[in-house]
Amino acid sequence: MHIVTANEMYEIDRFAIENAGVDGTILMENAGRAIAEKVVSLVKKSEEILVLVGSGNNGGDGFVIAKTLLNQGYKPTVLQLAANEKIKGAALYHKQLFINYGGTIQQLQASDEITVFLNNTDVVIDAMLGIGITGTLRPPFDQVIKAVNEVDKLTISVDIPSGVPADEGVLDFIGIEADYTFVIEEPKMSVFLEHCTAYYGNWSVVKIGLPHQAYANQIKRNTWVEQKVRTTLPSRDAFSHKGSHGRGLIIGGSRQMPGSVAMTALASLRAGSGLITIATVKEAISSIAQQCLEATFLPLASQEGVISERQQIDISTYDAIAIGMGMGRKKDTGLLTRKIVAKAKVPVLIDADGLYHISEELSVITNRKSPTILTPHFGEMAMLLDTTIQNVIAHPFSLAESFSRKHGVYLVLKGPNTIVSDPEGNQWVNTTGNAGLAKGGSGDVLSGILLAMIMQRQKMTEALSNGCFIHGKAADNLVVKKHSEQDLLATDVIKGLASVFRTFS
């Protein structure tokens, strides 16, 4: 699926109408019918249905939904929130069609009347406002949205919950808190924004027959779904050997934090790495070795329990490097980190404390010739950009894209909807994972999986997107079958990788 902004969706609709010759009334009919089919699966004929409609295309969809439900024996009440003269075009056509089918329309005269309507209904269908809403909501929409959110009624939104922005950049808004949202044709950007996702409830996409030429490869944002994994994840050759699947080096850890690199190494081996070497301080090796018997070790000089810059590391024999997990933020460690990143001629994945160290000198990554992968969470991204976490929350797509382009790196911006960006500005959003991953160590496990993926026979963007999908899918499987989101640990996710790989074997 593509992920679109409001303007991109308008342009796709315009192309369909002007270039492909699809009538707008037909598109509205298709949208309303498709959503009505979804509503039928959720609502009984005995239940009272209140359809809230505005003046635009969203309201037009509402008229089609009401007409379709009426024709199937349901009892929809249409409550129009806009003045009659504001209903125009295709929306006016479908309003009249609803009336011709025997439907009746009531008009909201005063905002406080909404309470009476809500008290006499079982289901609310929100077709008030579409994707073009900007700025502060005006009456009666602001009061109606608040009233809907305050009652315990099944609430279904059409395309987007009314009041929720379609695009990134808006943090302060009033929006319908939907139980279900049926998104028309393509998910809008806000579906994947941390502060907007919850408003959608359970969401799914309905197709309305837009021609594929309307996209013309102009949309560079897509979701990464299971089918993409099936078509891109490489299988293991029956005659391969351990060297065929990559020699990975993990640099990190400290006396106080030996677990980070242990989890990264275990996850990388579980995800298919052929050989893994852990470069860490001598004091940490014994505890790590007990957890990861399959790894080999490269002892590093330490100062007060952390990696020292005095250490020389031969990195010439490795196929990829992961650096930063649990290494601490000492000055000497930073010098060594930047030296290795600048020197390495293989893909380097930088995570955790490694991101802190390169943030002081971003030219180190900009000047690299080999692929560089950064895996920040929102706080680390804010650090890299010298901005606030709130700004990253508000603009994750654009900030990730511009950073990747500017520095020529692959960026894995971790969150409830992880975004993978490449140096050309293409982006993919992961569709797996749950709140159980909001635990210490989850990022270390993801780094290990990604390290394994980038050493297999697949494109870099495929490797990173597949790794994120597999990481989240393991957590999803575990929550369904064995764990809860509360008790799930990062080490459980490592053990859960087997179930995911069996699915794709």
UniProtKB/TrEMBL annotation:
Q: Does the keyword Lyase apply?
A: yes
> Its Enzyme Commission number?
4.2.1.136, 5.1.99.6
UniProt similarity note:
Belongs to the NnrE/AIBP family. Belongs to the NnrD/CARKD family.
Q: Which organism is it from?
A: Aquibacillus halophilus
Cofactor(s) for this UniProt protein = Mg(2+); K(+)
Give GO MF terms, alphabetically: ADP-dependent NAD(P)H-hydrate dehydratase activity; ATP binding; metal ion binding; NAD(P)HX epimerase activity
Q: Does the keyword Signal belong to this entry?
A: no
Note the subunit structure.
Homotetramer.
At which positions is AMP bound? 414-418, 443
Name recorded for this polypeptide: Bifunctional NAD(P)H-hydrate repair enzyme
Binding residue positions for K(+) = 58, 126, 162
Binding-site residues for (6S)-NADPHX, renumbered to this chain? 57-61, 130-136, 159, 326, 377, 444
Annotated YjeF N-terminal domain residues: 9-216
Using the record's annotation, list all stretches that form the YjeF C-terminal domain.
Answer: 225-504
What does the record note about the cofactor? Answer: Binds 1 potassium ion per subunit.
